[in-house]
Design a protein that fits this description.
8 helices; binds adenosine-5'-diphosphate; 5 strands; about 220 residues; binds thymidine-5'-diphosphate; about 55% helix; Rossmann fold; alpha/beta
Length: about 220
C-alpha cells in the first residue's frame, strides 16, 4: 500500500471516527452506534486507536503505559503514526475495500489535538507525517464534547493502568477540549460536535440520527 492520495477510492465502505477528551464517552458511543447499525443489517468493524491491529496494539502498550516523559514529543508522534499505519493497512483499508462500515474510537484528529495542540510548534510535523504515511480522513467524525472536570472524574473512576495521558491533569484536558472544538469548527462537514454530558441513550439516539441522515444523503 502506498501513502497518501492514491487511497481515495474506498469502494462503498464508510469510515466513521469518534473523538474527544478522555472519559467523554467515545468508546460507549462507538459501541452503541456499531450495535444500532448491525441491527439495521450493516457489516461493522469496530476498532480503536492507538491499536486496532496486532502490531498497533503492541505499539499502544509503549504509548499508554509508563512515565509521561517516557518519549520525546517527536518520538511519540512517530509511534502514533506507526501504530496508525499498521491499523490502516491491516484493519481499516481492507474493511473499506470490502464495503464495510469502520467505526474507530479515535483517529488522526487525536494526534492533531493531543500532540499538535498540546505543543503548537509540533502541528506542522503532525500534518506532514499524516500526509506522508496516512493520507486518509474519516467520512464522518463525532466529537463528543463535555466539561473536562466531569469527563476526568468518569475516566479516573475506571483506572485501567493506561493512565499516562489522563495523568496529565485538568488544565491539559481543557486545552484538548478547545483543540477538538477548533478542529470541528474548521471542518463542519466532516466533524459533528455532540453534547456528551447527557444520558447515554440520549447521546446515542442523536448520533444514530445524524449517521442515518448522512447515509441517506450519500445514497441520494
Ligand atoms: P472514553 O472512551 O471517551 O474514554 P468511555 O465511553 O470509556 O469514555 O466512558 C467513560 C466512563 O463514563 C465509563 O465508565 C462509561 O460507562 C461512563 N459513561 C459514558 N457515557 C456516559 C454518559 N452519557 N453518562 C454517564 N456516564 C457515562
Ligand atoms: P484511549 O484509549 O482512547 O483513551 P480514553 O479511553 O481514556 O480516551 O487513548 C489512549 C490515550 O492516547 C488517550 O489519552 C489519548 C491518547 N492519544 C494521543 O495522545 N494521540 C493519538 O493520536 C491517539 C490516537 C491517542
Amino acid at each position: 500500500m502506498q501513502a497518501g492520495k492514491d487511497r481515495g477510492n474506498r469502494a462503498s465502505g464508510i469510515f466513521v471516527s469518534f473523538e474527544g477528551i478522555d472519559g467523554s464517552g467515545k468508546s460507549t458511543q462507538a459501541r452503541a452506534l456499531a450495535d444500532t447499525l448491525r441491527r439495521a443489517g450493516h457489516e461493522i468493524v469496530l476498532t480503536r486507536e492507538p491499536g486496532g491491529a496486532d502490531g498497533a496494539e503492541a505499539i499502544r502498550r509503549l504509548l499508554v503505559e509508563g512515565d509521561p516523559d517516557r518519549w520525546s514529543p517527536e518520538t511519540e508522534i512517530l509511534l502514533f503514526n506507526a501504530a496508525r499505519r499498521d491499523h490502516l493497512e491491516r484493519t481499516i483499508q481492507p474493511a473499506l475495500d470490502a464495503g464495510r462500515i469502520v467505526i474507530s474510537d479515535r483517529f488522526a484528529d487525536s494526534t492533531r489535538v493531543y500532540q499538535g495542540a498540546a505543543r503548537a510548534s509540533l502541528r506542522p510535523l503532525v500534518d506532514q507525517l499524516h500526509a506522508l504515511v496516512i493520507g486518509l480522513e474519516p467520512d464522518l467524525t463525532f466529537v463528543i464534547d463535555m466539561d473536562p472536570g466531569d469527563a476526568l472524574a468518569r475516566g479516573l473512576a475506571r483506572r485501567s493502568g493506561e493512565d499516562r495521558f489522563e495523568d496529565l491533569g485538568l488544565g491539559f484536558q481543557q486545552r484538548l477540549r478547545a483543540g477538538f472544538l477548533e478542529l470541528a469548527a474548521a471542518e463542519p462537514d466532516r466533524m459533528r460536535v455532540i453534547d456528551g454530558a447527557r444520558a447515554m441513550a440520549e447521546v446515542s439516539t442523536g448520533i444514530a440520527a445524524q449517521m442515518q441522515r448522512w447515509m441517506a444523503a450519500r445514497a441520494a
